[in-house]
Amino acid sequence: MTHLQREIDRLKRKVLALGALVEDNLRSAFQAIEQRDPAKARRVIATDAMIDQNEVDVEEECLKILALYQPVAGDLRFLVAVIKITSELERIGDLGSNIAERALQLVDEHPVPVPSGFAVMADRTGTILEKALDALVRQDATTARQVLAADDEIDALYAELIDELKAIIRADLEHLDAIVLLFSVARYLERLADHATNIAEDVLFMVDGDICRHQTPNGEDGACTPDELFHFGDTDGGGDVF
After folding, report:
1. Would you say residue 102 has pLDDT above 90?
2. Is residue 28 a contact partner of residue 16, using CB atoms and an 8 Å limit?
3. What is the pTM of this model?
């Protein structure tokens, strides 16, 4: 194994650790919303600083490898993709912190029902983030395309969730402030899914050299339907958030 390959393997482990930290923090952020748990929300916000530092560390490591080894072809694409992917993970971490901040604000508001669509959308969004990171780990273009194919389904879930929130507003105008906070959380979840899609696009660049941003997936080359990705055929109605 060459020195360059050892450095790349070490870098992969750092990116995986960052991805796991981001996923765990997101899960805690949504639990803080559901459970009205201020302590958990504060832990999420505190952890965001660690995510930010890890993102800087990975970027510095990439730049050091580029300067020392001047990689080409696949190794070069990998390093460029990692710089972009860690930036996406940092932004996802920021969204988790934003959700936790809304959880703290909701603690001081009159309790309002959290629509069932939140759990559904959080679960689906977590699934595509997990798939995107899995595609990164395995450098798997097929899985990356599956993530891209699910984007329209996330948009549909977001629209359904907004409709649920509108219905709650019409039924309870007295507690509008709390409901507006839930609107912002819904938007954060939708943006989170966009960042996961960006990660999948970066994986495709890393593996195939394809730049597919701003393109609409056509379902070819192994892309699956949203139902296949999310297993909508399951009938138990359960499953943990994220």
Report:
1. yes
2. no
3. 0.81
